[in-house]
Amino acid sequence: MEILWFLPTQGDGRHLGTAIGGREVTLDYLTQVARAADDLGYSGVLVPTGRFCEDPWVAASAMVPVTKRLKFLVAVRPGIISPTVAARMTTTFDRISGGRLLINVVTGGDPVELAGDGSFHPHDQRYALTREFMEIWQRLLTEEQVDFAGDHLRVEGARIVFPQVQRPHPPIYIGGSSDPALDLTADIGDAFMTWGEPPALAAEKIADVRQRAAARGRSIRVGMRLHVIVRDTDAEAWAAADDLIKYLDDDTIKSAQASFANHDSVGQKRMTDLHGGDRDRLVVSPNLWAGVGLVRGGAGTAIVGDPETVAARLKEYRDIGVDLFILSGYPHLEEAYRFAELVFPLLPLDRPAARSSATPDATQQPRGEVIGFDRFPVQPAPKAAPAPQDS
Fold first, then answer.
1. Can you point out the beta strands (E) in the chain?
2. Phi and psi for 361 in degrees, rounded to 5?
């Protein structure tokens, strides 16, 4: 198993849906969480994206010099940013971090938020645009110059000057539950990400995406995004779950659920359907609790229990094909320690190896000719043999 943690750039606290016990997003606090994850042996952190979060690329960049091994799963947003700019951000981050970047392809599922960012494509058109975006992005990281004309995007003479560390490019993580999302993952994804559904439902989706990948001659990793509430005893863990939502009132839940109903995300609908906004339907599978999803979009379930129970449930997901978990808990600093101390010893972990910042060498010099105030020729960097797409 590989375990990642979560960087709470949207804020943090001990209770959902209230400012009571809330924590402000500050550089110092995010640094504490990132350093804890790095020191404890989490292999990386997911840096969230959206209008209620700090910018993920800026936040992740600030964490690079204060960590040693930690990888950063950072979102590219087709339809909101150009593929050429995203490619330059990718190569820059990968170089300054010494190859610690993971790419999270986020097509989006909230039409209101997307409209605020100037994106008005309906669901399936967003995936068609994403496919063109990723073709340009991948080609820019592997070719000297790119010309592309699609239905949604067009570039002429696009190029990357400074190459990335990871070849052929940083790993691509794609989440989603719709047919376009599963097809895109099968075509180009290195890892498929799903939210924490009951094992039987998750197994169907995992089998589906792996069959699609196999039909294309590919194999992919599978990851799952979950919250965790672990305590010394089951009783203490369930009490902590109740405490997390003790300030939620019916109006707050109703408002959040109405907002989620407007999403065109198939994955969000699957999450919401687990509980329907009903406090009496929150245990959706043994030790799988959907209370987080009462007011939080996206990943809305948590594994709740004592260390042995939580480890057993994670191993059940491993048995259906999940080998990578992105976990979180409220508040994220303390829960990073608690999970690592109580559950890590019970899991077959793939621990991160030591990494260091990128150092200049012949493979990391500018590609082609650089034109600025001075004009000087630079020999193109030798291309490394492409790494296997499968993982």
1. 2-6, 12-13, 22-23, 44-46, 71-76, 101-105, 146-149, 154-158, 172-175, 191-195, 221-230, 283-285, 288-289, 302-305, 324-328, 370-371, 375-376
2. -150, -175
Distance of CA 166 to the CA centre of its chain: 18
Q: Are strands 71-76 and 44-46 parallel, antiparallel or unpaired?
A: parallel
- Give the torsion sign (CA, 368, 371, 372, 378): positive
Task: In whole angstroms, give the CA distance from residue 136 to residue 84.
Answer: 7
Cβ neighbours of 99 (radius 10 Å): 17
Q: Tokens 């994220």 appear where?
A: 332
Using left for φ > 0, alpha for ψ between -120 and 50, and beta otherwise, residue 366 falls in beta
Dump pLDDT digits (tens) for 214-253: 999 999 999 999 999 999 999 999 999 999 999 999 999 9
Q: What is the pLDDT of residues 157-210, one digit of tens each?
A: 999 999 999 999 999 999 999 999 999 999 999 999 999 999 999 999 999 999
Helix, strand, or coil here: 78? strand
In the structure encoding, which two tokens stand for residue 241, read together? Answer: 């779950």
Query: What are 161's two structure tokens?
Result: 């000057």
User: Residues 320, 248: contact at Cβ < 8 Å?
Assistant: no
Helix 123-140 × helix 83-96 angle, to 10° = 50
Cis peptide before 331 (omega within 30 of 0): yes
State the Cα–Cα distance between residues 343 and 313, nearest whole angstrom.
11
Query: What is d(CA 63, CA 334) in angstroms, rounded to the nearest whole number?
Result: 18
- What is the value of pTM for the model shown? 0.89
Please list, in sequence order, all residues whose beta carbon lies within 8 angstroms of the beta carbon of residue 180, skipping any fewer than 6 positions away: 123, 124, 127, 128
Q: What is the average pLDDT score of the chain?
A: 90
What is the rounded distance in angstroms from the CA atom of residue 230 to the CA atom of residue 137?
Answer: 40
Q: Tell me, what amino acid is at 171?
A: P
* Chain mean position to CA 237: 26
- Could you report the per-residue pLDDT of 60-84, keeping only the tens digit for each? 999 999 999 999 999 999 999 999 9
CA distance linking residue 230 with residue 314, whole number of Å = 12
Encoding tokens for residue 116?
């605020």
